[in-house]
Amino acid sequence: MDAHAPTLEKLVSLCKRRGFIFQSAEIYGGVTGLYDSGPLGTLMKENIRRLWKESLNHLEQEVVYIDGALIGPEALWKASGHISNFHDPMVDCMVCKHRYRADDISLDKPCPHCGNKQWTEVRDFNLMFTTQVGANTGQSTTAYLRPETAQVVFVNFKNVMSSSRVKIPFGIAQIGKAFRNEITPKQFLFRMREFEQMELEWFCKPSESNHFYAFWILQRMLFMRAIGITKERLRLHGHAPEELSHYSRGTSDIEYQYPFGWKELEGIAHRGDFDLTQHMQHSGKDLKVYDEETKESYTPHVIECSVGVDRLFLTLLCDAYYEDEIDGEIRTVLRLHPAVAPITVAILPLTKKQHDFAYPLYKKLKLADYSVEYDSSGSIGKRYRRQDEIGTPFCITVDFDSPADNTVTLRHRDSTKQERISLEDIPARLDALLKISFLEE
Ligand code: GAP
After folding, report:
1. Partner of 391 for a Cys bridge, out of 15, 70, 211, 336, CB 3.0 to 4.6 A?
2. Do 144 and 108 form a contact (C-beta atoms < 8 A)?
């Protein structure tokens, strides 16, 4: 394998060293599958959410947003099928008590942890976290932390239709946390116990559902390309009937070639009328829609696009990570799309003497809402390397000539080329750089 290729170890180390991602509660030993975002991770995740929304808003299709509760009553999760279906097969080693997902290992072979071959029965383990709502023991009721954001959309479908001016076909989108008590969280941000989802539920007439299923698969693939993910590391995987989830009539995954293999990045599912029908049956409420043309009521079909913020974040890091050789030295660089990069521009005074000129420039750009960093300590070479490593596409160096002629040096991360530009041209250059073109194919 190429010694300069990204590995999970390198990414985990970079994320910690530079303040993207920390193990949660690390000083107490941490909990597997729980992570916190540091300053750079927080900025980058904000960019991911903004771009996802932009990718929906630039289309003609109508999409509204909601922000639902994280905890849901047992009745909701019974209706959705999560209480009976949302489990993974689990098995324990009887000797060392190590626990595995039964589909992750071969039970014909010894335990990878202790080398013995004494397995318990395989049993189903429900992935939902339970909690109690209400202060009085005995009177409190069991509720669940949502394992997906989608159900909050379905139970609000009628509320949204009657309170907004939307008409079928339209989408309800939501960004928010989801929780799954994964048996073996692994591969850093790939499989976590607490993560964030960006989900679009697209409601349409049954007769148009196949058309929209194909439409959204294409749109989501175009989104991945527009935010800079390498085309050759993306592919589509259509699920065979036996792979489908309990709610799905058809699912296509956008897969990415991670350092640990091809895996799902985003799922696009044709959910048919499964969810609305289930919620109608269990709640007794009518969630049908009246069609003015046919004068009949019908249950809309749903096409779902679902991607994890954290998984997309990991994908972008894997895809952008390079180790280049420059002047005989290896530099680590994140070739993130400028609109994704946590810092757009770094202001670097060549020496402390340029502070009085450089600092107001930093403040001005910050007030104009650019993501800017000011760094005045250390050699200029070291400061460039640090910015390369966190993916900053532009460095502005203020030098001895800057105060005299109002010009600065603009350094490009990928080519390391430098050019001289005047202060007044900076915003226009940054704006051009930050533009994303959501391709239409
Ligand atoms: N509403 C459909 C649904 O939740 P899913 O395939 O279970 O479908 C959708 O999840 C997306 O959410 C995945 O493609 C992935 O991007 C993200 N995701 C799911 N489980 C995750 C986990 N344990 N950690 C991080 N991201 C996860």
Report:
1. 336
2. no
In whole angstroms, give the CA distance from residue 141 to residue 131: 8
Residues in the chain: 441
Q: Is the CB of 204 under 6 A from ligand 1?
A: no
pLDDT value, residue 320 = 98
Q: Can you name the CATH fold of 8-71+147-317? A: BirA Bifunctional Protein; domain 2 (3.30.930)
What are the boundaries of each domain within the chain? Answer: 8-71+147-317, 343-434
Q: Nearest Cα to 300, choosing from 198, 211, 202?
A: 202
Indicate the CATH number of 343-434 among 3.40.190.10, 3.40.640.10, 3.40.140.100, 3.40.50.800: 3.40.50.800
Q: And the tokens for 93?
A: 């080693």
What mean pLDDT value characterizes the chain? 95
- Check if 180 has its Cβ closer than 6 Å to any atom of ligand 1: yes
Low-confidence ranges of the chain (pLDDT < 50): none
Q: Which 3 state secondary structure label does DSSP give 143? A: strand
182 touches ligand 1 (CB under 6 Å): yes
Closest CA to 267 of 288, 297, 287, 247: 247
Question: Rounded to the nearest whole angstrom, what is the distance from the C-alpha of residue 104 to the centroid of ligand 1?
Answer: 17
Interatomic CA distance for residues 350 and 355, integer angstroms: 9
- Ligand 1 centroid to Cα of residue 282, in Å, is 25
Taking the centre of ligand 1 as the mean of its atom positions, its distance from the CA of residue 82, in whole angstroms, is 14
- Phi then psi for 211, rounded to 5 degrees? -60, -45
Q: What is the pLDDT of residue 137?
A: 66
- Pairing between strand 296-298 and 345-349? unpaired
- For residue 145, the CA-to-ligand 1 centroid distance in Å is 15
Instruction: Give the relative orientation of helices 355-367 and 426-434 as an angle to the nearest 10 degrees.
Output: 50
Q: What is the pLDDT of residue 246?
A: 86
Q: What is the pLDDT of residue 439?
A: 67
Residue 440: what pLDDT? Answer: 59
List all residues 6 or more positions away from 239 whose beta carbon is below 8 Å from its beta carbon: 248, 250, 251, 252, 253
**197 CA closest ligand 1 atom index:** 12
